[in-house]
Amino acid sequence: MASVTFKNIVKKYNENLILDNVSLEIKDHEFVVVVGPSGCGKTTLLRLLAGLEEITSGDIEIDNIRVNDLPPSKREIAMVFQDYALYPHMTVRENMSFALKLRRFSREEIDKRVNEAAAILQLENLLDRMPRQLSGGQRQRVAIGRAIVRKPKVFLFDEPLSNLDAKLREEMRVEIAKLYQKLNSTIVYVTHDQVEAMTLAGRIVVMNKGIVQQNGTPLDVYRKPQNSFVAGFIGSPTMNFMDGKIVSEKDFFYFQNKDVKIFIPSFVFPEAQDYAGREVTLGVRPDDIILDSAKMDHANKLSATVEVIELLGHRENIYLRLGEQRILAVGEAFGELSPNARAEFSLNYKNLHIFDALTKKRINP
Amino acid sequence: MSEILLSLGQVLSFMLLIAAAIASVELYLWAHFKYHDKNSIFYACALLFTMFAAFILKAAGFLTANAFLLFLLFEIFLIFASKKLLKGKKYLPYLLSAPAFLGLAALLMYPFIFQIYLSFHDLKLTTIMQWKETGSIPFAGFKQYLAVFTVPPLAEAGFFKLLWRTLGWTFINVFFHVLGGLTLALMLSEITRLKGVYRTLLVIPWAMPQVVAVLAMRGEFHSQYGFVNVMIKKALDIFPWLASLGVAPVNWLSDYPLLTCIIINIWLGIPFMTVIILGGLQSISKSYYDAAEIDGAGYFQKLFYITMPLIKPVLMPAVTLGTVWTFNNINVIYLVTGQAGGTEQADILVSALYKAAFTYNRYSYSAAFAMVIFLILFAISISYSKIFSERKEGKI
Question: Do domains A4-226 and A240-356 have the same CATH topology?
Fold first, then answer.
């Protein structure tokens, strides 16, 4: 088990900047999920750590040892690939023992480790099958087994669930969480799926355009997104954003654009005075839109037209329209609202997110 | 002018004949499927075919009782076979493949059957006039097949000597084809710049007509003006100590004809293997190599554990084909060792067969010889595909 440190990593393909000065510390036993849209550089970061790509500048350390110039096999890492990369001409057992065979482990040691891993992953009955005879989920488990037998310092997962169907993906997600509890090793997990990130991670690293946007616990990232990109990327359904200005009226501050005027309590945004008159983006999650009149702030409530209602079973997505502004709210299924009706709502003030329209950075605490 | 018109007319009438043959077969097939429950249609067809045959034979000046009888028998066989074999509702495949089948019949089956016929008779320089005048050749039974193994086809070498030489020739050639092809393909797959240029250059020997390529190379092995000896001489001028190692210009064509042939044929055969193996290499997913690298495999380990097993599905058919082609390769040997009256030191089975037939005019003997070669190749191909399919099944 080991810690991993990225120091000012820059990666360029010719003139294309893929990673821009990425610094990151991963502690021992930590499950870190790197999440971001496709092309954000997250897989490149993982491949740099694995040693499959060369670093343009910067240092990578595993256990405080600089590994920039070490070949992948010497870095004591194991990687699970998106397409599993199981050797198609080898049986499951051969696939899992290949790395050990290359390292000249004894026959008994190899068998012991392979059987151990097979027991953990329930692969005992599949050891003599060929990869093509396995289902997607089984292949995935073999790929993980191939990593486990190595007993590496760091496990690298490169979008391991993206080739599975939705149901299997959920199952495997639980399996990976269980596996982490069992192995308790350092894991770097790359995904574009924010649900995987939220559920699996001990720490989330959100990346976009080769830059680390935010680095923190799942709750941190969800509750206090540091910029509007993170706010929009993490959370489902997506956060509502409104562009407007901070205006002050009689000692109170409001967020205003031509469609809405929203009261901003001072505990939400103590520095509002400094931003008065400036362009900001207000973010509010669908869950933080209060439609229940018992909980509503009646003094500052807003009124909108219900546009569409999407029933999801246990709840529903309610699209509200205020002028040109569309706002998504979620409510209990079979609520009182129906399309084209008027709806009144207020916001859950303590979960308001205010971003500077120019820098996109969070400005409220 | 009139001669040109005459020949044009002949060509045209020949093409018409082919078209008529195809049309009649198509018509027959159509009728066969449409009225296959009516026997009368078969009699009608038989009658029509017979008249057609009589007309053709008459026009070609071959109308003898024997030929006519043979044709009748063939036709009855065809009609009964078709009645037995062609069943079902899907007749379009038969209609569409009939012209190709006719072509194959004329170009492959007829010569093959005629060869079998020849191999059981005795056609040679002394009986060929008899054949021309009476249309019959003395029957010989298995005498020709016995002669294949006892009577040498050439002045210097008998069957078994030629067989060993052929096997050696085939093995060495195919071995170096695969080795060279693999090396070049591995290099080509690593190259990223000017990829197309290198590939084009390497494929030239294969794309060029073989005759041109072989004759050009033959020139390079000329003892006085050939590139090879010229380079050896230059090397000796620069490094005189080479001479003490025994390096000296060699009379390639007269002293080492087989070696020269092998070198030329290796050069000719490598591009094909390169192209095939390169195709195989490019179909291997890059992620296997990533996985192997993380597993700790070095270059040669990746080559033996990943690359080789994964290109086997494309390599095996290529090796089978290469074996058959090399075993049967008369072009290189015929062109390098001089067409007639040249050395016999480089002859393999097929080139010996060619000489037996067309230099020594022993037609029936050659026919039997060709049958023996065919059976050897047949056995090789069968065993290759057996080994290959067994391995495949063993893995599943």
Answer: no
> First CA to last CA across chain A, in angstroms?
36
Q: A1 pLDDT band (50/70/90 cuts)?
A: low
Closest to A207 in 3D by CA, of A21, A37, A49: A37
Q: Is the distance from CB of A44 to CB of A57 less than 8 angstroms?
A: no
Binary contact (B294, A52; C-beta < 8 A) = yes
Q: Whole-angstrom Cα distance, residue B5 to residue A183?
A: 91
**Residue of B290, B295, B300, B305 for testing the chain A interface, max A β-carbons within 10 Å:** B295
Selected residues 119-178 of chain A with any CB under 8 Å from a CB in chain B? 130, 133, 146, 150
The answer to whether A95 and A103 have CB atoms below 8 angstroms apart is: no
User: Which uninterrupted H or E stretch holds B379?
Assistant: helix B363-395
Main-chain phi, psi angles of A106, to 5 degrees: -75, 155
Contact, B129 vs B149, CB < 8 A? no
Reported as a single tens digit per residue, the pLDDT across B126-144 is: 888 888 888 778 888 888 8
Asked whether the beta carbons of A177 and A200 are under 8 A apart, the reply is yes
From the list A50, A82, A133, the residue facing B294 with the nearest CB is A50
Q: Choose the closest CB to A72 out of B293, B301, B309.
A: B293
* Euclidean distance between CA atoms A78 and A153, whole angstroms: 8
Spatial CB neighbours of B330, under 8 Å, sequence gap ≥ 6? B350, B351, B354
* pLDDT exceeds 60 at position B321: yes
Whether A83 and B287 lie within 8 Å, measured CB to CB: yes
Report how many Cβ contacts below 8 Å link chain A to chain B. 61
CATH of A4-226, one of 3.40.50.300, 3.40.30.10, 3.40.50.1370, 3.30.70.60: 3.40.50.300
Q: What is the spatial distance between Cα B371 and Cα B377, in angstroms, rounded to a whole number?
A: 10
| Domains defined along chain B, listed by start | 2-119 (no CATH), 151-361 (1.10.3720.10)
Tens-digit pLDDT profile for residues A53-111: 888 888 888 888 888 888 888 888 888 888 888 888 888 988 888 988 888 888 888 88
In the predicted structure, residue B364 carries a pLDDT above the cut 80: yes
Q: Give the bridge partners for A356, in sequence order.
A: A280
CB pairs under 8 A, 24+ apart, for B266-269?
B266/B172, B266/B173, B266/B176, B266/B177, B266/B180, B267/B205, B267/B217, B268/B205, B268/B206, B268/B210, B268/B213, B268/B214, B268/B217, B268/B332, B269/B173, B269/B174, B269/B176, B269/B177, B269/B322, B269/B325, B269/B326
Which residue of A78, A82, A87 is in closest CB contact with B294? A78
CA A209/CA A42 separation, integer angstroms: 9
For residue A215, how far is the Cα from the chain centroid?
10
For A240-356, CATH gives 2.40.50.140
- Residue B26 in 3-state DSSP? helix
CA–CA gap between residue B57 and residue B66 (Å, rounded): 12
